Amino acid sequence: MNLSDLGWNDKLQTAFNSYESENGQSQLLQPARVVRQDMTRFTLLGQTGEEIIAELAGRLKHQTIDKSELPTVGDWVIIKLGDNISTGTIVSTSSR
């Protein structure tokens, strides 16, 4: 399984590329799809279908005014992988 199997397309890739170039962290960022949410933890599927457990970045959590802007199941997110490739931090949510 890969991202295109989950619905990844050219529009999403363009948005990801823009975010990546604006933030200059290309090796550290990757897109993922939210498949489960448990309070403050999210289960994501990564680029090759691997399961990643992630939490929201503090900036994203505290600067979001409307909770509907936070990720939910089915959303595409941009994550920064942790030291262990099965963990990460959600740094951005793609627009729905």
Note down, in words, how this protein is organized.
The chain has one domain (3-93): Nucleic acid-binding proteins (OB fold (Dihydrolipoamide Acetyltransferase, E2P)). The mean pLDDT is 90. A 5-stranded mixed beta barrel has the order 1-2-3-5-4. The protein is of the alpha+beta class and 96 residues long. The protein has helices spanning 10-23, 58-63; strands at residues 29-38, 41-45, 51-56, 76-81, 87-93.
Q: Can you tag this structure with a few keywords?
A:
single chain, OB fold (Dihydrolipoamide Acetyltransferase, E2P), five-stranded mixed barrel, 2 helices, 5 strands
Condensed summary:
This protein has helices at residues 10-23, 58-63; strands at residues 29-38, 41-45, 51-56, 76-81, 87-93. The chain is of the alpha+beta class and 96 residues long.
**Overall average residue pLDDT:** 90
Share of helix, binned: 10-25%
Strand percentage lies at 35-45%
What is the rounded distance between the termini?
22 Å
Largest sheet, spatial ordering of strands:
1-2-3-5-4
- What is the structural class? alpha+beta
Determine the number of helices (DSSP H or I, runs of at least 4 residues): 2
Which oligomeric state applies?
single chain
Enumerate the spans where pLDDT stays under 50 for 5 or more consecutive residues: none
**CATH architecture classification:** Beta Barrel
What's the CATH class, please? Answer: Mainly Beta
- Main β-sheet description: 5 strands, mixed, barrel
Along the chain, the helix and strand elements come as HEEEHEE
